[in-house]
Amino acid sequence: MAVETSAYSEQNEIQRDITEMVRQFADEQIIPNAEKYDHEDSFPEPIVEQMKELGLFGVTIPEEYGGMGLDLTTYAMIVEELSRGWISISGVVNTHFIGSYLLMKFGTDEQKDYFLPKMATGEIRAAFSLSEPEVGSDVQGIKATAKKGEDGSWELNGQKMWVTNGLGSGVVFVLMKTDTKADPPYRGMTCFITEKEPWAEQNSGDFKGLTVPPKIKKMGYKGVESTELVYDGYRCPPERVLGGEEAGVGQGFVQMMDALEVGRVNVAARGVGIAQRALELALRYSQERKTFGKPIAQHQAIQFKLADMATKVEAARLLTRKAARMKDAGERSDLEAGMAKLLASETGKECVEECFRIHGGYGYSKEYEIERLYRDAPLLLIGEGTSEIQRMVIGKKLLQRHKI
Ligand SMILES: Cc1cc2nc3c(=O)[nH]c(=O)nc-3n(C[C@H](O)[C@H](O)[C@H](O)COP(=O)(O)OP(=O)(O)OC[C@H]3O[C@@H](n4cnc5c(N)ncnc54)[C@H](O)[C@@H]3O)c2cc1C
Q: Residues 283-324: pLDDT tens digits?
């Protein structure tokens, strides 16, 4: 007996429309301009302004605060399209998305009312700061501190490192040690919502005590700035402890790790986007370039590369969407988010390398887009937990779920 089936579709109507819109935006506005901003290492202001108009800073923020109120799965689809254009563009929204997630999940009503409407429009952008000069993977080892003063405010001191959007952001969600003796250390950590003046190297007035040193010079991932942040006597009012003092002090590590779970889906989507672009470039170039009397795409060795790339892109995309869908359904997705981040970031790097090989000598020329992708892709192996750390997370979760 035949079973009735409906047409296969990975996306619902809203997702199809919005993905199409962002894809067109990437084709018309991001890809043709990425080379210029990458070369200058300058902030792609006109592109970011258009993203504000498209509402891309408020994709997951609820409608009551002026956002689109869409889910993580749809957000991941959007990020894939932006990254297919240029991963630096997704970097401009990534930390902002994590900041809005932290507010939506843990913020007080006052914090949500104050920040979310301005964040939904992109009027202020958010940064997210855990890392320090001596600490990345081992987050419990941070040294920056916050101490409660007699006037009730908290005094923040310490140096943060690798803060994406560190200069242009108007608010930084920063992890500080509030109890240096806590055992285990994670219980003594708190997330502070630190406001700052966008694009100011030296903050003054209410935000004095926060300095942004010159941006870090990088191999790729240009255009979006990565900076250190120096907190030196910065005063943070008690109502800017994430979730409020009573609920939030000592909860920062748990809150930030929760946010990293969605952050990992987001990085996975970026891996899929860059891998997809590398595949497209390889498909085109291999049909144009001829050797030994035929297009190189007709050599089996090249076709096998294309086949492997396409297969891996598809697998990484499916795993990324699965992790996002599980989170949207309210299920635990730490294992799947770790797997998606691992597979998709490695796929991004592998596909970019294969595309580079297919381009022969031209892949080494700055005239071809693949040269930029080759410098951009490795970041995804590091940010939001390296591949080694993902394997640790996956291994630990696997053993927890299958304990005998
Ligand atoms: C461009 C860029 C942007 C970034 N943006 C941000 C941001 O916005 N906010 C933020 O907080 N951070 C940010 N980071 C920091 C990033 O999260 C860290 O670089 C990353 O977590 C790795 O930390 P680390 O560089 O200190 O490496 P380390 O932790 O010193 O690790 C070094 C090496 O040792 C391996 N390793 C470490 N521990 C183990 C272990 N137990 N077992 C096996 N191997 C291990 C690692 O996998 C890696 O290969 C950014 C980094 C970059 C490069």
A: 999 999 999 999 999 999 999 999 999 999 999 999 999 999
Question: DSSP letters of 201-216?
Answer: SB--GGGTTEE-PSPP
- What does DSSP say about strands 226-236 and 171-177: parallel, antiparallel, or unpaired? unpaired
- The residue ranges of DSSP E strands in 25-107, in sequence order, are none
Distances from the Cα of 160 to the Cα of 133, 222, 379, angstroms: 7, 20, 18
Between CA 300 and CA 372, with CA 282 as vertex, the angle to 5 degrees is 145
The residues, ordered by sequence, that sit 6+ positions from 300 with a Cβ below 8 Å of its Cβ are none
Q: What is the pLDDT of residues 25-50, one digit of tens each?
A: 999 999 999 999 999 999 999 999 99
- Picking from 331, 325, 344, 357, the residue whose alpha carbon sits closest to that of residue 385 is 344
Using a 10 angstrom Cβ sphere, with 0-12 exposed, 13-18 middle and 19 or more buried, the burial of residue 177 is: buried
| Token pair 């002090």 in the structure block, residue | 249
- Taking the centre of ligand 1 as the mean of its atom positions, its distance from the CA of residue 61, in whole angstroms, is 28
Contact 357, 371 (CB under 8 A): no
- Give the Cα separation of 241 and 287 in Å (integer): 56
> Which pair of structure tokens corresponds to residue 112?
């949500």
Q: Ligand 1: residues whose CB is within 6 Å?
A: 95, 128-131, 136-137, 162-164, 218, 221, 226, 379, 382-386, 388-389
| Residue nearest ligand 1's atom 12 by CA | 131
How far apart (Å, rounded) are the C-alpha atoms in residues 371 and 287? 19
Rounded CA separation 254/373 (Å):
34
Reported as a pLDDT band with limits 50, 70 and 90, residue 4 is confident
341 CB burial (10 A radius; 0-12, 13-18, 19+) = buried
pTM of the model: 0.96
Which uninterrupted H or E stretch holds 128? strand 126-129
226-236 and 294-295 beta bridge pairing: unpaired
Cα separation, 148 vs 291, in Å, equals 70
Q: Is 384 a catalytic residue?
A: yes
